[in-house]
UniProtKB/TrEMBL annotation:
Key words of the record: DNA damage
Protein name: MGMT family protein
Residue stretches making up the Methylated-DNA-[protein]-cysteine S-methyltransferase DNA binding domain: 4-84
Source organism, top-level taxon: Bacteria
Annotated Pfam families: DNA_binding_1
Amino acid sequence: MELFTENVITIIKNIPSGYVMSYGQIARIAGNPRSARQVVRILHSMSKKHDLPWHRVINAKGEIGIQDEELFHTQKSRLENEGVQFKGKNRVDIEAYRYSPECEDII
């Protein structure tokens, strides 16, 4: 497994309940700020295998980016169960709920 992938998995596993991170934020901390789409791919292909809290990852606007209606509602419900409040249908106050660790705290 590549170091970037290992870092992404470690970062996602360490997002605490009730907080979120953006794809780009994870990519930056993992060592490649231009790889937000790779974070999406890692989430898609490795969430079950590594038991990742995938629902805690949202886009930079604070929105749930999943288009699939069932997965959208699953993600929103899981976040709400952790105390995350939404503005409108799909937007989280990213500044209020963003987990902002230092790189050296995680990887």
